[in-house]
Amino acid sequence: QVQLVESGGGLVQAGGSLRLSCVASGLTFNIGTMGWFRQAPGKEREFVTSITRSGRNTDYGDSVKGRFTISRDNAEITMFLQMNSLKPEDTAVYYCAARALRTASTAGLVYRWWGQGTQVTVSE
């Protein structure tokens, strides 16, 4: 089993920045691609970004391109999401996810392990 724990969420004003972290534990050798998803109240879960195990391939949702940056530290089994130029529409619960396969994917259904989520709130 793999456990994922997110941290770094909070309240920030529009235009500000936050950095989310996701620490993995357990059978971490199983982890391939990792990603971030988010879900705002009353909305469906949305793909934010993903990164392959090697770190060479990343994908971003259109709404966050140019503002968010994903990275990972395989030695520490930690993934990061640097969020800049935050907008009120970025307000959501952000979830860390991981899958065993090492290929990239934007589909939430293919991710096997999920964290509990961390709230990000961006005020006007």
Description of the molecule:
With 124 residues, this protein is an all-beta fold. The chain is built from no helices and eleven strands. The protein has strands at 2-7, 10-13, 18-26, 34-39, 46-51, 58-60, 68-73, 78-83, 92-98, 113-114, 118-123. The strands form two sheets. Strands 2, 4, 5, 6, 9, 10 and 11 form a seven-stranded mixed β-sheet that branches. Strands 1-3-8-7 form a four-stranded antiparallel β-sheet, with no helix packed on it. Strand 7 (68-73) and strand 8 form a beta hairpin. It starts with a strand and ends with a strand. 31% of the residues are buried. The model has no long low-confidence stretch (mean pLDDT 95).
Layout of helices and strands:
Layout: E1 2-7, E2 10-13, E3 18-26, E4 34-39, E5 46-51, E6 58-60, E7 68-73, E8 78-83, E9 92-98, E10 113-114, E11 118-123
Parallel strand pairs: 2-11
Antiparallel strand pairs: 1-3, 3-8, 4-5, 4-9, 5-6, 7-8, 9-10, 9-11
Largest β sheet strand count, sense and barrel closure: 7 strands, mixed
The tally of beta strands, per DSSP, is: 11
How many DSSP H or I helices?
0
The span between the termini is 40 Å
What is this structure, in a nutshell?
By secondary structure, the protein is mainly β. The chain is built from no helices and eleven strands. The chain is globular.
